[in-house]
Write a structure and sequence with these properties.
Aspartate Aminotransferase, domain 1; binds pyridoxal-5'-phosphate; Aspartate Aminotransferase, domain 2; globular; 404 residues; three-stranded antiparallel beta sheet; alpha/beta; seven-stranded mixed beta sheet; 14 strands; 2 domains
């Protein structure tokens, strides 16, 4: 057991982030496999296996209707591939309620002249009725939404938006970069044409690869649009997949070995079992953080199971919190944009054990108490003898916040 006072540095960082993650030993071995040429049957087999396993990960029932392409590039590459390849000269509506919805919008504006936007404040849910009304009054060919808006930790409603798109005939495309591998994404039931994701988040592999899973009939139609990029044209990826199970350009082969291993490990464990394990780990963290009297940015029911976004207690600086935790080999995230300085984020994906979670919770308690004691000294400095000591309200509040 870890003693509660544990000031030692570990021999590795524990990545309590929404990715990158601590990878499994099986992946470390896989990335060092033999050198192969990507124009040889070995690579065809490797990519074929990844595609097969991705379709299994998504638990697609009618497997013959779907294909998956793998891109050498981070999650943004897969998102940009979708946004630059599926709209053609048509119109796209971006639904944004956070940083990553904002990025979809920015990317789409580069490639698509007719980019519409429904924008909610960061961390606020979408109103499906508003989306439905917009689609009824505007000619929209494609709707794009982030599934897990990582900046707030909020899961957005795939089934509702998918059903709305079905009614109007718009293609529904989804950024699943931070949810695939941890949350059910039923592409068939939710009417999703294309979904993107990356290797380095809930899939648990190294950064550097991303992928797009999509309906075959939609992949086939992409060749009718003029290409907007060379490297990220999904039609080209699909053409290479169809004829050879290869990629158009030189792929990062060692990362493909690692991704294949990560998918093998997930399928061996069982997809639903894995999702339940990730959720149980999130629950353990959340219960522990609530015991420290910490508040969360959004309701637990709205959260993805990979990440918890926590309000920073008064008088504590996120930067200090991060620095002190790093001294204990723990890495967390800071809030960005309008959440900067107000929240920190704790991920629970990758190779983190229950033991690591307890270690984290003890370290967090320790650091919060230390930082609050330091802050209390600042607001109520030592006074000359004889002076009356006044307990200032902020210091009192701090005391109450942390001691469980
Ligand atoms: C939802 C979402 N989309 C896109 C991205 C961008 O991915 P990458 O940094 O791998 O390019 C991220 C990264 O955190 C994300 O969380």
């Amino acid at each position: 057991m870890v003693p509660l006072e544990y000031d030692q540095m570990l021999d590795k960082y524990l990545l309590f982030t929404p990715g990158p993650v601590n990878v499994a030993e099986t992946l470390r071995a896989a990335i060092c496999k033999e050198d192969i040429c990507h124009r040889e049957p070995d690579f065809d087999a490797l990519l074929g296996s990844i595609e097969h396993k991705l379709i299994s990960l998504f638990q697609i029932r009618n497997r013959a209707r779907y294909r998956a392409v793998v891109i050498t590039g981070s999650g943004t590459a897969a998102n940009e591939a979708i946004l630059s390849s599926v709209v053609g000269k048509g119109a796209i509506l971006i639904l944004s309620n956070g940083e990553f919805g904002g990025r979809l919008h920015k990317t789409s504006r580069i490639h698509n002249k007719h980019t519409h936007l429904i924008e909610m404040p960061w961390g606020a849910p979408f109103d499906p009725a508003q989306v439905a009304a917009y689609l009824k009054t505007h000619k929209i060919d494609v709707v794009a939404m982030v599934h897990h808006e990582t900046c707030s930790g909020m899961l957005n409603p795939l089934a509702e938006v998918g059903a709305i798109c079905k009614e109007t005939g718009a293609l529904f495309v989804v950024d699943g970069v931070s949810s695939v591998g941890a949350e059910v994404i039923d592409m068939e039931a939710c009417n999703i044409a294309f979904v993107s994701s990356s290797s380095s988040k809930a899939i648990g592999s190294y950064p550097g690869l991303s992928f797009v899973v999509g309906r075959k009939k939609h992949f086939k139609r992409l060749k009718h649009h003029a290409a907007k990029t060379t490297y990220l044209n999904l039609a080209t990826f699909y053409a290479f997949l169809k004829h050879h199970s290869q990629t158009p350009n030189t792929p990062a082969v060692p990362l493909f070995f690692a991704l294949e291993q990560a998918l093998t490990d997930i399928l061996c464990e069982g997809v639903m079992k894995r999702y339940a394990r990730i959720k149980a780990r999130a629950d353990l963290l959340r219960v522990g953080m609530r015991r420290l009297n910490l508040d969360f940015l959004i309701e637990e029911a709205d959260m993805c199971s990979i990440l918890t976004t926590v309000r920073v207690p008064p008088s504590i600086s996120v930067r200090d919190l991060r620095d002190r935790l790093r001294e204990k080999s723990i890495i967390i995230y800071e809030g960005k944009g309008c959440f900067a300085g107000k929240v920190f984020q704790v991920g629970n994906i990758g190779e983190l054990s229950d033991y690591d979670i307890r270690f984290f919770l003890s370290a967090l308690k320790d650091v919060l108490l230390t930082l609050q004691a330091e802050a209390a000294e600042l607001v109520a400095p030592v006074r000359p003898t004889g002076a009356t000591l006044v307990m200032l309200p902020p210091a009192k509040r701090i005391q109450k916040k942390v001691v469980s």
